[in-house]
Amino acid sequence: MQKITLILFLLFLMPAVVAQTSSVKKAQGSFDKAQEYLKSNDFEQAAALLEEAVKADPSFQFAFIQLADLSRRLKRYERAKASYMSAIALGGNPDPRMYYGFAEVGINTGDYTSALKNITYFIQNYKGTDPDFLNRAKKYQKDCEFAIEALKKPVNYDPVNMGPEINSVYRDYFPSVTADGAQLIFSRNINGNEDFFISRMKDNAWGKPVPLSEKINTTKYNEGAQSISPDGMYLFFTGCNRPDGLGRCDIYLSHKEGKDWGAPFNLGAPINTIYWESQPAISPDGSTLYFVSNRPGGLGGYDIWKSSLKADGYWSQPENLGPEINTPYDEHTPFLHPDGKTLYFSSDGWPGMGNKDIFLSRLDEQGKWTIPENLGYPINTFNEETGLIVTPDGNHALFSSNLKGGLGDMDIYQFKMPDAKKPQPITYVKGIVTDKESKAFLEAHVQVVNLKTRKMVYQDYTSAATGEFLAVMPLGENYAFNVTADGYLFYSENYQLDSAYISRPFLVAVGLEKLVNGKNMVLKNIFFNTNEYQLLPASVTELTTLAQLLTNNATLHIEVQGHTDNVGNNLQNEKLSLQRARSVYDYLIANKIAPERLTFKGYGETKPVVSNDTEAGRKQNRRTSFVVTKI
User: Fold this and answer.
1) Which residue ranges contain the repeat TPR (predicted)?
2) pTM value?
3) What is the percent of the chain where pLDDT is above 90?
């Protein structure tokens, strides 16, 4: 009844100057019958009868207005436009609300100049008191103003069908890609059943898509609107009308177990409620889940919310992203790029081309979202644009549509991203963790920490079946990389990804060494200022890992060692190396490691690992290490 109420609201409060009746009996009869069909929700019959009415009496202005409004509601915009124009041509003083409807038709057909003229007339002449009605009109006015300017400055846009390697005769949509660009997961609807399919990149070509997993895909329920974690280990997706659901649609999670996926489970409260939760998007560090919900407390009908993973493994009470992102209208399909700072989403609330457009917002240094930017025309049009993702390298966007020349009902397309709309550049470290001697895969804890902010950007356990991991690192920062496993020395690496770094992935084979006497390890994330021995704050991450190793292995004894290059006086180098080793020793004791388990020594320049002939070599020789003295 909502549609009928709105139609009647727009149509039946016309001034007396509008011809609300016809002297032509056939026209009036058809019009009266149309009202009965409107009341019974039979819009097709009502429209047919109104067509008969205006044909029988071309001066029947009110029938033209009603036919125009009804055609607009049925999305028959060209017919609506012709009917509005016929009504206006008959003169008189129609209610200003007719111009609101006419403007909406213009927006939905890309006729923004006409739409702006009509919506401005409505705003200036509307005498009603409905604030929502007037606010939407003002939103339409901003849309028209934005669209007229956007048409003057089109962005480069050339969508390319991803071809039969990915697309089928069925409906293919909602793509998602892992951070290494090696796996593409998407939804495919076959005879009304939605399932996930996966394609893998090999030799720079996508392989034939296959069903993702029998543990996730079902024949009874639909699976869709998914988000894959950058490392490809966690799949968040939407499941609707399931027995374990809390509402009509809930968010589910499956974790990869070896080469297959684990059985998915409902995330439960507080993320899922009796309301609609869908379209999840996981942050690259796995700690924040973004999703769409119509739960109470939002700003509009559908808003974007977020929940953080707490230390106890439970999700926090979701919070609304607020007016920086959400509007009194609808926001959908959030996608957080692996850079962790660029959010793409669709909205019909921010100024755009009409219907839903794609926007982006960036997380600033204060943790606030910037004002959303429209991706521009012709990426956005008067049609609905939604469900866009951006490849890890930021160069291409993927989306689904039924563009002309497609292979099926809906296909997946890609296009080059305009430079100004690209996310922050990223790289990643990808590898396998094994026992260095036996080469057996290990279940190990991998963590990557931003040394400036000391925030964890990645932490997870590798699978004992594969030993694989993949961690994303946005450029412009320095990172500590550690791998730990019970009974082994931990692995340490440092990645300095400053502005001069050229993006390329780090592919590593991490062979962990067992804790035995005599094993020596370089600590690559212990930092001092030149010629000083006070530990810099960035050292805390690695020192914490070392302290944890000693705590977990109560019989482990070590000697902390300091080393320098060969620049300067030998005695001064030996003294500096001793002081630096002492600083690490003191830190460990302050963190409750028994002094009798520790010794320290400065070796100065006497134990270089490479030649001191180059600065790169000298940098390697300036190091802090430790050796196992007893276990």
Assistant:
1) 27-60
2) 0.91
3) 87
